[in-house]
Amino acid sequence: VARLRRGFYARDPVDVARDLLGKMLVNAMDGVLLRGRIVEVEAYRGQADPGSHAYRGPSPRNSVMFGDAGHLYVYISYGIHFCANVVTDRTGIAGAVLLRALEPIDGVGEMEKRRGPRPVVDLCNGPGKLCQAFGITREQNGVDLDTGEVWIEDDCCVNLKIGNSRRIGLSAGADLPLRFYVTDSAYVSRARPPALR
DNA sequence: ATACTGATGGCCT
DNA sequence: GGCCATCAGTATA
Fold this sequence. Notes:
By secondary structure, the protein is of the alpha+beta class. The chain has helices at 6-9, 13-20, 108-115, 127-134; strands spanning 2-3, 24-27, 34-45, 72-77, 81-87, 95-106, 150-154, 162-165, 179-182. Strands 1, 2, 3, 4, 5, 6, 7, 8 and 9 form a nine-stranded antiparallel sheet that branches. Helix 3 crosses helix 4 (127-134). The longest helix has 8 residues, at 13-20. It binds a DNA duplex (13 and 13 nucleotides) through strand 4, strand 5 and helix 4.
């Protein structure tokens, strides 16, 4: 049970994405310890990835994607929800991994309080849902996972069967197979992933 | 089971 | 003005 360090994140986003499956997202911001196992992610590149926020170069919104690896990139989705990414790759090279679904482990009561009463399986099975359950907002944009009150730790979870599909909800870059998920998990955002084409 | 829709902020051309 | 890396609700089968 050790916090992942910056070196883990400072690699190609596809490698980081695959290696994040099975790890624990931890939030100690509010005095309650929230913990969830990462079961679904998507990799985003910068230039060369038309589905990425960084495709057209740096901007005020995407600037943390171009910064040091191991920081959170949080943005507002559809004006209502938040989505949380982990910044990857070398400084100056944009790359990120979107956290799409978690299996709730610790602090389930607190998550239910924030999400409203519903089945545990529906607490964190989507990028906006897990941000709501964990209390992640625009305020956490740029938080350092290496030193901050939010981090990811290794849970020694080996033997995972990893599935691969197109990314969800995109038009540009929709054909790239950059979504990864734990095949047997009931906590992913969709039972049937979009076909690879 | 799939299909649509409204909510709603901010970034983009 | 148009377009989203979404979600919960409603409708139709």
